[in-house]
Amino acid sequence: MYLCVMGNVISERIADFLKDFPPFSVLDKKQLHELAVEVTVMYKAKNTVVFNIDDEAHDNFYLVHKGAVALWGTIEKVVIDICDEGDIFGLRPLIAQDNYRLQAKTEEESILYAIPIEIFRAYIKKNERVMNFLVESFASNTRNPYDKNHKGQLLGDTAQFDPNDSGYRLFDLQPVEFSGEITSATQNTTIKNIAQKMTKKGIGAMLIEKEGLPIGILTDKDLRNKIATGDFSIDTEAKGLMSSPVITYPPNLTITQAQMAMMKSNISHLVLTEDGTVNTKAVGILSKHDMMLSLGNNPAVLVKAIKRARSCEEIRPLRKGVMNLLRGYLDQNIPMALTSKIISELNDACIKQVIELSLSQMEKEPPVKFAWLAMGSQGRSEQLLHTDQDNALLFEDVPKSKFEGTRTYFLDLSKKITQGLNTIGYDYCPADMMASNPKWCNSLSGFKEMTSKWIVRPGPEEVLLSSIFFDYNRAYGDKKLVSALSHFIFDTVEKYPIFLSHLASSALMNPSPSGFFRQFLVEQDGEHKDFFDLKKRVLMPLIDAARVLILSHNITDISNTWERYEKLAEVEPNNKDIYMACSYASKALLKFRTKQGLQHNDSGRYISLEKLNKEEKMKLKRTFKTVKEIQELLNVRFMVSRVR
Amino acid sequence: MAKQKNIYPEFWKTYAYTFERALPDEIEKVDFVVLDTETSGFDLKKDRILSIGALKISNGTISPKTSFELFLQQETFDSRTVQIHGILKKTKIGQIGELEALKATLKLLEGSVLVAHHVAFDVGMLNEALKRNGLPRLKNPELDTSVLYNKSLPKRKRKKEGHYSLDELASTFDIPKTDRHTALGDAYITAIAFLHIVEKLKPVSLRQLLKKDRFGWLWNNF
Q1: A502 CB near a chain B CB, below 8 Å?
Q2: What are φ and ψ of residue A250, in 5° steps?
């Protein structure tokens, strides 16, 4: 008699969870509480089967409260979907009168809410949105397994672009940007009036409308050619002068289409209407000027402008264009590998130009050949947002007597370059890992000596330095010098394989991204308390692991993390799955970080979890598993325990 | 003894009867009742139960329908503890007498293993209440989540005194602490923690699980 009838704290807890997830989110409070009383909470250990293929239908369908459940298809070993917190599964009995077609098995310890189907059916009848959602979920859970690539991707690359296609053309396929603010007049307005209005608003064209629809256009050019010449008086009404009918286009026109249209009709303004015909309202006017501005964000144009820059101050605003381009690519969902390639090339162009400019300011030519090395994230071509500069200068060996003089010359040059980089927006490295520091401005033998010390006697600091330096990439200068150093490093590593164990050990030191129950682990104190450190907890473990593995395979010249993983998948076909998962996760995470950075105008490293939506959180969590797997591989392969 | 047994009311006899046969030894077949009491204080003799929250776990599932939270009418009252549990002496909603509360609790406890966080205290309070009503002590085997949790950790990580607060457990297993300090809210947190702990301990039988809790079991019976 005292058992729960009207609900208690348990049913309140259940209702409180349900309310945040579709389809329950559309139920009202009373319905939620009525339903919650009927729900049972189920605890399932890892690898427990909830239902099997061909099992008789249960009386419930399920909502994942905590943990994860994998749905396996009829074909052996094909995971169709992984249901995370808030996902529903086991809907078949609700929709079809037969047995289960999939197997549901917990991927980890899970708590499920079992929702009784008979009771839930009443809500479906009352609410169409509930039904629609369920049908969609059902369809997506049972879709063709080959479609799985399109589900559950972290900010999936949905655009169908060929990554081998030249990136420079992509931009032209982006929709035009236009001002949605339209100034219009009627056909009986006098030219004088219109000209005054245009001057006041600072616009080059006036749309003439009749009953809300565009019938003509008047431009600066008309005023110059027809009024200023004296052919018409300023009291003429617009209808006597305007170009009519207007040439209209739909607003989703791409830049290329807009250019073509203007060329074809030899006009400077396009009227954009709702459906692209004159029979719908105008939504905007696109001028040649607008288009030129948009074109300023074209990578090819930007590269030209960067190369033309005569000072670092001139490059600075161009980098803003690079950021706009980046934002556009991310919005357009252009594949991350391609986006990062284009942006990195632009960043490289900026650096090259800064170096050229600095060289021209030096009184003498460089005494010997040299190379400028980008280290860390820049070396890996993973620096899409501005972060610190990490760089080094490598010069040819000189006789001992000339060493100091040579180094002094290059230090002077490096100072100019690092200053220039700072001017265009790269912060100085707080750890002073810059070529202006004598430690990082050295001859080939000097670098050989330093790196061999790290490899032969690796302590914590040496390992840390290696992890930054070994991702170097030549940004400028002599190729042979750089490859001589690379070969030296690989040969030395081969002689002292214990170094790899140390490097692997350090790669495993990064703190774990998630706790016992897959909850995000946030920073406990300091400036970023309660924020999630995306770099330290997820990106670095992947980057560090890639470095160790690639070094162990003696593969030079690939410093980018996902390219490293792709190469690893090639040389170790038996581990292809995990390497491809790592490659994918690195790209997805970089994109995620870049988006976060652009949104909050910072490096995107620290994430405020409240600001992520459920989808973003869940997708982020999916990469954690990949991190754990690659770390396990490192642990076993490099016998990390030897050095711990 | 046998004569005395007959004077007990029907509900007690029904309850006691369920323990005359041994409980199933397979963990999946055992019913666990997770219980928490909010009390006026920590003195077993002087203090009284303010509320009892209890729920049943059958084969890893919990239902709001087999759970309850009872509020007991009070004669004595300690204003100091109100700050913690928020139960006032004169709270009106559905208060029932001590005997009625014991009846409902015994009904749920039939044939089950009793689980609580620091179980000795809750069972102590219940036994005192039973005694006041002329009834014997509880017959359920008992498990203590604090003791079991300690056992589930690797030896080097265990606390010497083996004491863990319910808050610690809630944090470890990421259980929201929304209804902390309501009897059923605490019982629910204890229940979820219990399920995780059992999974970590992986006992092959009920007997083995009870063994892991030997210390708590003995403590309560001496």
Answers
A1: no
A2: -75, 155
